[in-house]
Amino acid sequence: MLTAKHYFISLFVGLLLVGSGCANQPTTLYQQLGGNAGISLITDDFLVNLSKDKRIVHHFAQTDIEIFRQRLIEHLCVVSGGGCEYQGASMFDAHIGLHISQADFDAVVGHLINALKQQNVSIGTRNALLAKLAPMYQDITYH
Predict the structure, then answer these.
(1) Which residues of 101-136 are buried (b: 16+ CB within 10 A; e: fewer)?
(2) Can you give the pTM of this predicted structure?
(3) For each successive 10 residues of the chain (143 residues), what is the average pLDDT?
(4) Buried b vs exposed e over 42-79: b needs ≥16 C-beta within 10 Å?
(5) Closest alpha carbon to 103 in 63, 66, 140, 71
(6) What is the pLDDT of residue 13?
(7) What pLDDT does residue 12 have?
């Protein structure tokens, strides 16, 4: 028999679930980023931001930007749990000889954060992505 107390608890839990939008919330980081379409837009904004930064743009002077774009989309997809296949080199191998400093790395991360903001990605989702990317710092800098 359902008592008034049980009824109100059930009603409260039900309202919490409906109010929080649990059924409609993206469940993976990949989905929170907008899937492939969202990651592509983030990547495009990121590349525009990089192209305007005189401090670091020289690191991309010999880069085929279309291939870089595709590999970055693949990489962000894999890192965010999208089930894609990354066809590029490891982060270590891709950055050997580039002599990327901490300042360079920080500038690139800043441009990624700005691209995420430009696409209205929530701070929680931005932080979740950055947490996945942060361990790659050692493979990218000073080689």
Answers:
(1) eeebbebbeebbbebbeebebeeebbeebeeebeeb
(2) 0.79
(3) 47 45 71 98 97 92 93 96 92 86 93 98 97 91 72
(4) bbbbbbebbeebeebeebeeeeeeeebbebbbbbbbbb
(5) 140
(6) 44
(7) 46
